[in-house]
Amino acid sequence: MTAAQMILSSALWLALVVLGLSFLLTVWRVIKGPTLPDRVVALDMLVGIVIGFIALIAIRTGFTLYIDIAISLGLVGFLATVAFARFILAQGRGDETVEEEVRPVVPAPPLAQKRKRASSRKPGAGPAVSGKAKK
Amino acid sequence: MIEVLIAVLTALLILVGAGFALVAAIGLTRLPDVYTRMHAASKAGTVGSGLMLLAVALHAGDLSTLARALAGFFFFVLTAPISAHLLAMAAHKRGYPLHEKSVRDELNDYRN
Fold this sequence. Notes:
The complex is a heterodimer of chains A (135) and B (112). By secondary structure, chain A is mostly helical.
């Protein structure tokens, strides 16, 4: 075994151990995580660590084809995180009422409301508009 | 000689990348709320896996491998902040609380 191979081999072993340790810490956060976003963040992090594992295996075996697998895993992980974010956005926390959920977070400025009302008004429907304006 | 140099550089990239991943995992474990954990995971974790991809490219010494590794690196670096921002916005809109020691919540100030 030449010096270069020995340096590379020992660095690979050390990096595999360190990555395994960080993988275990992240899995602990997935299990423990008190809220759903914590778990999603930890799963996103797990994808990153597994990409690191794939890169190490690519160096160890010499198959550079593993890089393509890492790229596609990163794509899947990104899409999964985006889907989870939409899911978190769509769900309530469970302890708030439906009315609070439906309420828009940013209150619309009065000008926009007026314009919306004006655009929905039809030329002949005067009384209906005045009845609605009370709201 | 050049072989040893490339091996040393590759080993350095691998070890630094693994160190970044470990730091991100420790941050994910130790930080108090979801927003600070997100800050640890999305920055340090991305750099960790990206450095290891660059190590593969350096080890192979091949132009096509280098191109693919760079494409993967930039893909991760570009998508990690997007997913972290989406997740933070969703969690904040749903009202997941900040840690009690947080000094300010500018997104909340902006909304009210």
